[in-house]
Amino acid sequence: MRHNKKKGLKLGTDAAHTRAMKKSLAKALLENDRIKTTETRAKALRGYVEPIITWAKKGDLHSRRLAIAKLGDKNLVAEVFDKAAQGMWADRNGGYTRIMKLGTRKGDNAPMVIIEIVSEPVVKKAPKKAAPVKAAAPKKVEAVEEPAEEPAAEEAAEEQAAE
Q1: Residue 114: how many other CB atoms lie within 10 Å
Q2: Cα dist. 112→54, 76, 115 in Å?
Q3: pLDDT number for residue 28
Q4: Quick one: which of 124, 126, 100, 88 has its CA closest to 37?
Q5: Positions in the chain whose pLDDT score sits under 50
Q6: CB–CB of 81/59 below 8 Å?
Q7: How far from the centroid of its chain's Cα atoms is residue 18's Cα?
Q8: What angle do CA 127, 129, 134 make, to 5 degrees?
Q9: DSSP labels, 74-111
Q10: Which pTM was predicted?
Q11: What digits encode the pLDDT tens for the residues 107-144?
């Protein structure tokens, strides 16, 4: 049974080590805005960091306390909340991180990536305008003539009838 088991990837360790690793990676990412790690760790980290940024966008006391509980660093939380207050992610509804693949690590062939915090504003695309519909002229239907039987076939039919 899975009583009190957390969702998510184990990352090859026990639960306490996984939790500590995610916390450490999240601190490094929020301090440096970009880190290099394995693809699996980056995908696990994405689900850990994005709620913190969402709480920072809210900016209330409860959200701040949740972020401090998750990161364990008041100064770092204050820095993230200040960035959010300046409107760094104001126009973005989720998707605060970006993962870019680098290739494989030399020693163990593990897929390496760079995970970074997205700081560019969202570019909203203008909806495509439909091309004006032209009234189609009725197509002319040409009469298809059936090909006449070949003369050789007619002669062969006449010879058989004569016999």
Answers
A1: 14
A2: 26, 26, 10
A3: 96
A4: 100
A5: none
A6: yes
A7: 24
A8: 160
A9: HHHHHHHHHHHHTTTTTT--S--EEEEEEEE-TTT-PE
A10: 0.71
A11: 999 999 999 999 887 777 777 776 666 766 666 666 66
Predicted confidence at residue 73, as pLDDT, reads 92
The letter for the amino acid at 55 is W
**pLDDT score at 75:** 96
CA pair distance 150, 137, nearest whole angstrom:
38
| H or E, element range at 38 | strand 34-38
SS3 at position 150: coil
Helix ranges (DSSP H) in 13-150? 15-32, 39-58, 61-71, 74-85
Which structure tokens are listed for 126? Answer: 């203008």
| Burial classification of residue 159, based on how many CB atoms lie within 10 Å of its CB (0-12 exposed, 13-18 middle, 19 or more buried) | exposed
pLDDT at 5: 77
Tokens representing residue 35 in the block:
């880190």
Residue written as token pair 């972020």: 67
Contact status, residue 141 vs residue 75, Cβ threshold 8 Å: no
Question: Order of strands across the sheet with 97-104?
Answer: 34-38, 111-117, 97-104
